[in-house]
Amino acid sequence: MRKKLLRTGADELSYEIRGIVKKAEQLKILGREILWENIGDPVQKGAKLPPWIKDTISDLVQQDDTYGYCHSKGVLETRQFLAAKNNALGGVQISEDDILFFNGLGDAIGKIYQYLVPPARVIGPSPAYSTHSSAEAAHANDHPITYNLDPQNNWFPDMDDLYLKVKYNPNIVGIMIINPDNPTGMVYPIDILKRFVEIAKEFDLFLISDEIYINVTYNGSRAYSLPQYIDEVPGMALKGLSKEVPWPGSRCGWAKFYNKDKDEEFNKLCTTLENAKMIEVSSTKLPQVAIPKIMGDPRYQDYLRHNNIKIGKRSQLISDILKSCEGIYFNATSGAFYNTIVFKENVINGKQTLKIDNPEVQKVVEDWVSQPNVLPDKRFVYYLLAAKGICVVPISSFCSDLRGFRVTLLETDEELLRRTFTGISEAIEEYINN
Question: What domains are there in the chain, each with its CATH number?
Answer without folding.
Answer: 8-47+301-432 (3.90.1150.10), 51-295 (3.40.640.10)
